[in-house]
Design goal:
elongated; mainly alpha; 75% helix; 265 residues; 10 helices; two-stranded antiparallel sheet; 2 domains
Length: 265
């Protein structure tokens, strides 16, 4: 039963993390934002961070400063390791705090750490006692049934999104190869292309991709790749505006702009 309860804690705090992240982004960007890697209203990174804080600190100390500073270390460690895993797995950087002061490799920041520290104090003192108490009051059969259904939904959501993202690398590679083929052909017809390729400003890149989309290199195969899993990819683009593909970022940025433009129509 303890395993079932811990899993329900994970889901509860992943949901609360999604609420916090989505609300923060929605207020900042003045539009509704569905944050997180998964389609459903859940951010597992918050859930795992909360579980780590609970297992390490709950009922072990009442010192708020210890909870605050130790939680900063724990949650930042989760965020840093998650960043490394996502980068290794999907060949992309999902967020970037490089523009903020006191950041480390753009993966974690002091402001974020302080926010997580405050949230962890609230979690330990108020939220977890309430949620864990309510979960314990549920009949055992209800706990097991709820955990089973939530696990199945989480598994399907994770599988569909991870499968789509794992295919993104090959997808962008094909678009990249087709675009480079277009550039080589275009270079033979334009003297100014070498300067354009060296400068590679956003305006020049956009103009080149527009020409690419009007060329024979923009085949039916490439068109299908661009619109493949459009809903999932658009959600990722909106949820992670700092998403940067390590190998084929130009192809990703153009794909992102196409998906967002199509969504407006």
């Amino acid at each position: 039963m303890l395993v079932v309860q811990v899993f329900l804690w994970l889901i509860a705090y992943s949901f609360l993390g999604w609420v916090y992240e989505s609300a923060l982004r929605s207020v900042r960007e003045r539009k509704l934002v569905n944050s997180g890697l998964l389609t459903g209203p859940i951010c597992p990174i918050y859930g795992f961070g909360a579980l780590l804080v609970i297992l390490a600190l709950y009922r072990r100390t009442d010192n708020l400063l210890i909870i605050f500073f130790f939680s900063m270390i724990l949650t930042c460690s989760v965020e840093y390791i998650t960043s490394l895993i996502l980068e290794k797995l999907f060949h992309a950087k999902w967020w970037d705090y490089s523009h903020m002061r006191f950041n480390f490799q753009g993966r974690v920041s002091l402001i974020g750490a302080a926010a997580f520290g405050v949230l962890s104090v609230i979690l330990i003192k108020y939220i977890h006692p309430f949620i864990s108490g309510r979960i314990r009051l549920l009949p055992q059969a209800v706990q097991i049934f709820s955990a089973s259904v939530l696990f199945a939904v989480l598994f399907i959501d994770t599988y569909l999104n991870v499968r789509s993202l794992l295919r993104l690398d090959e997808r962008l590679k094909e678009i990249h190869i087709a675009f480079n083929g277009f550039l080589e052909e275009y270079a033979k017809k334009s003297e100014g292309i070498k300067t354009a390729l060296i400068e590679r400003s956003e305006e020049i890149k956009t103009a080149l991709f527009v020409r690419f989309e009007e060329s024979e290199f923009y085949s039916e195969r490439i068109k299908k790749l661009v619109l493949l899993n459009r809903v999932q990819m658009k959600r990722i683009a909106l949820a992670f505006p700092k998403f940067k593909h390590i190998n084929y970022d130009e192809a990703w940025q153009r794909l992102k702009s196409i998906l967002l433009e199509v969504g407006k129509k």
